[in-house]
Write a sequence for this structure.
């Protein structure tokens, strides 16, 4: 069925904004470095994490960090989307994906989507101590290892795999708590620094985890 009318410019329907925030690319780096968009509004999808490709519509394992703007609490909509006005709080400083996205012609966003993604390393590698902590977390909570251990849960190495996964979960939970409580790091930027907790992302591997605190 063909639409009743064709559009060639944004009509501010808000559909794209309601599907979630954009990912960042190298040309967006200044927006973060200059404090135009604060870290507390961002989160990281870590390398190897299962995620939905918003352009292709499928689930894939991300090849590197994807830094995105958070959604509103209990909603998919971008945190900067203003529902009543159907507008954007940061429109003049919107990231490249927002500028490229035209729902009536997706060529520009398709060409940009996988190119020059901004990573945590691009932003934080010069911060001694913090970057070391992030690298250690990435190594110890590597999603390739997670996938391998999950597969082994159905084999002869089940007990060993379960033990390693449990240790990984405890480490992931503990490092987040320590960073906020002992390291003085704003709890609102933990999702940017370390990505989603393994207790959440393991569900994408078909594993349900009971929350037993940080012990």
């Amino acid at each position: 069925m063909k639409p009743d009318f064709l559009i060639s410019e944004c009509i501010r329907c808000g559909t794209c904004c309601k599907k979630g925030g954009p990912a960042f690319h190298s040309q967006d780096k200044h927006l973060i470095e200059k404090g135009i968009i604060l870290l507390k509004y961002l989160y990281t999808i870590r390398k190897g994490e299962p995620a939905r490709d918003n352009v292709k519509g499928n689930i894939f394992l991300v090849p590197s960090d994807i830094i995105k703007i958070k959604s509103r609490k209990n909603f998919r909509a971008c945190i900067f989307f203003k529902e009543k006005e159907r507008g954007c709080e940061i429109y003049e400083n919107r990231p490249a994906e927002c500028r490229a996205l035209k729902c009536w012609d997706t060529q520009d966003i398709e060409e940009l989507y996988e190119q020059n993604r901004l990573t945590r390393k691009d932003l934080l590698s010069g911060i001694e101590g913090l970057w070391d902590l992030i690298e250690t977390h990435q190594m110890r909570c590597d999603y390739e290892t997670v996938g391998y251990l999950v597969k082994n849960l159905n084999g002869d190495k089940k007990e060993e795999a379960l033990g390693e996964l449990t240790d990984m979960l405890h480490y992931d939970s503990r490092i987040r708590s320590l960073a906020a409580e002992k390291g003085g790091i704003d709890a609102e930027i933990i999702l940017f620094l370390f990505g989603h907790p393994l207790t959440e992302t393991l569900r994408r591997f078909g594993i349900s985890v009971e929350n037993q605190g940080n012990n």
Notes: The chain has ten helices and six strands.
